[in-house]
Amino acid sequence: MYETITFRIENGVAWLSLNRPDKLNAFTSQMNKEIQQAIKKSASSDEVRAIVITGEGRAFCSGQDLADVDESMNLGQILRDQYGPMMKQIASCEKPIIAAVNGVAAGAGFSLALACDFRLVSEKASFLNAFVNIGLIPDSGNLYYLSRIVGHAKALELSVFGEKVPADMAEKMGLATKVIGVEDWNEQVTAFAENIANRPTKAIGLIKRYLEASYHLSLEEYLEVEAEGQRIAGLTKDHIEGVTAFVEKRKAQFIGN
Ligand code: LHQ
Question: Which chain regions cross the lipid bilayer (predicted)?
Fold first, then answer.
């Protein structure tokens, strides 16, 4: 069904893998479309409680396929039509999304990793804000997320110099949730994703929503929407289960609702 990605659901986790390894998983409009279809399916499926985005072969994603770009194109329109909707979809998805950065993440591939909620980073991976090297500005939400994650000064530095950031440096900057050795990669990524999938994922979705909202609201407005969020969380079975398990001194069994 998919031509440029692979997609499967296993143990509550949707696994979405970019699948153009010869081009280091560079984005085409087809790939962009398929990623959005897979995220939409994951967001609406009761079977899915966490989503992993990763890449086949030695790269995570090398950004826009440069062989697909020519001078006549309006890059702004490509962003409005293809990349913007994908980034908004990731931000508004009320399920945790993990980027399993198996190799280099460059250009919009870096932006994709930044837009995810967690970044598991292979020790052989790197991040590259490649845009400036071809005379462009970081796009697909890159500056928005990068400055929030690493701070203004580092975001500017990475964007202006366009140099590779290896995994150990990425971890120091706060870009990596965790750096993982090559030999443990599959095992640890699976364990991390399944651990998240077994948490109260409805509450995690609300945490995503309200953390993002906090940047755009006054404290007074924020406290009001937060109260609504807690009202919703308070109605979940997971809330009752969490409190009951605490009182009964046992491990809670969450269902994501
Ligand atoms: C590629 C690519 C690639 C095609 C490697 N495309 N083939 C832009 C415009 C439009 C609107 C929307 O917004 C954007 C956003 C962007 O993403 S702009 C930034 C685009 N990305 C880049 O500028 C990164 C370009 N790639 C690189 O700098 C290097 O390939 C990296 C550092 C990622 C990896 O370097 P190496 O490990 O040395 O691999 P390589 O360069 O030898 O690449 C292997 C193959 O993959 C090679 O093909 P070939 O047929 O010669 O084996 C590359 O041509 C191909 N490839 N990136 N983005």
Answer: none
Q: pLDDT tens, 101-115?
A: 999 999 999 999 999
Closest residue (by CA) to atom 3 of ligand 1?
Answer: 65
Number of domains in the chain: 2
CA of 194 to the centre of ligand 1 (A): 32
3-state secondary structure the chain: CCCCEEEEEECCEEEEEECCHHHCCCECHHHHHHHHHHHHHHHHCCCCCEEEEEECCCEEECCECHHHCCCCCCHHHHHHHHHHHHHHHHHHCCCCEEEEECCEEECHHHHHHHHCCEEEEECCCEEECHHHHHCCCCCCCHHHHHHHHHCHHHHHHHHHHCCEEEHHHHHHHCCCCEEECHHHHHHHHHHHHHHHHCCCHHHHHHHHHHHHHHCCCCHHHHHHHHHHHHHHHHCCHHHHHHHHHHHCCCCCCCCCC
Residue among 4, 19, 24 to mutate when testing ligand 1 (max atoms within 8 A of CB)? 24
The ranges of the chain with pLDDT < 70 are none
Ligand 1 binding pocket includes 64 (Cβ within 6 Å): yes
The reply to whether 232 and 169 lie within a common domain is no
**Same domain? 114 vs 217:** no
In a domain, residue 10? The reply is yes
**Is residue 39 located within the same domain as residue 58?**
yes
Answer yes or no: is 256 within a domain. Answer: no
pLDDT digits (tens, 9 = 90+) for 29-84: 999 999 999 999 999 999 999 999 999 999 999 999 999 988 898 999 999 999 99
Distance 54 CA to ligand 1 centre (A): 17
Task: List the domain range (segments joined by +) for residue 117.
Answer: 5-197
pTM: 0.97
